[in-house]
Model the fold of this input.
Amino acid sequence: MMPRTLLVAAVVSICGGLTASPVRQPRPSSLVIITLDTTRADRLPAYGFAGVATPVIDRIVNEGVVFDTAESVAPLTLTAHTSLFTGLYPPNHGVRDNVAPPLGPAHVTLAEILRARGYRTAAFVGSIVLARDRGLARGFDVYGDGARTGSPAPRRRSANEVIDDASAWVRHLDATPFFVWVHLYDAHAPQAPPLEFRRAYGDSYEGAIAYMDAEIGRLLDVLQQKALLATSAVVIAGDHGESLGEHGEREHGIFLYEGATHVPLVVRAPGVSAGRIAAVTSLVDILPTMLDLFGLVAPAAIDGRSLAPALRGKPLPERAVYAESMYAKRFGWTPLRMLRDGGLKYIDAPRPELYDLSVDPFEQRDLSIERPLMAASMRARVAAIAAGPASQVAGAASVEPDRARSLASLGYVSGGPVPPAASATGPGRDPKDYIQLFNEIRGRARQ
Done:
């Protein structure tokens, strides 16, 4: 296999030195990506929700482009972020759940590409799920996961801690272009926003969203003070959502309904006019879009596509996007896979489901029996995407005891050996029949 340093250099070379296709001036000089863990789109005012105030995010919305129909690739933090930073679907990058082996050396990340071009790079994350050893630290000069000398990364960090670290790094920036990623975990259960936010909302989930918004404001203020905000591209994205009891799932991890997969995605950048894009998009589109905005060319072998033409006012052709949930396999249940094509959404399971979201946004009427040819066609397309090089998933990864306990405290069960689960295209244990058991397992894991 090609050595890691040569691999990154090869990407730069293949991309013509990452010199560019024409982009309308001015181009952004630097990049800020803020990921909101466990944040479903329909709990933000930008997507029509009136129950929480997010004035900082609203400011970015008013200055940028909102993607109305952005889908995650998986209802799990590590898998979703790996796709965001590689432009690859999970079957192609191999990180299928939070306790899977980390990203392998064959795949290049956004941070590696930008650092190879001279950008200063830093990441500040709020959960052990994204700790330094989980594969996404590559390419970052600084990777702040809260670990201190002699002690591992904490299980989770509050937004104020993450923003404190990120702000301190930003204050020391000079004129060198930079890329900073900030990950906020506060909306993930069990939520514990500061008392003022709990009192204001009476709902810990909505209070956590308002709290993250306020903390984002502190970071943007520092960027403004350094005269860096106006020239930077800013991306705000959810990694996945939260079911909040819909379809019987209390939180997330198993199902692929919209509560868990529909995520916010907002892009604000110099030269980009405010607006909204209705076409279906995916987290895998972020890497090629950002490289395109910066006048750089993305690696060819990725699943995402650049949304930059839409940001410049051009029509965005529709295309189908993929998501999966492999976590069920750890319990001996059949994994789920999803394809969304326009308003149609197909979920591949022992009892498959087909929804027309244009008239049934809450996925209440399964059309798979009424429209068998459409269901069969979408199943075949799901199978083609799922048959990637990482399509074989181990029943359980080897996780050290301390890490397993930390993940369990967050509700993730790494487990031991589990019964083999059947393919989603054949008979198997449908997770719909076990969701209450999953809720109980997850609750017990936190005790």
Summary: The CA atoms of residues 54 and 213 lie 6 Å apart. The chain has two domains: 7-15+29-319, 322-446. The chain has 14 helices and 13 strands. The longest strand covers residues 275-282.
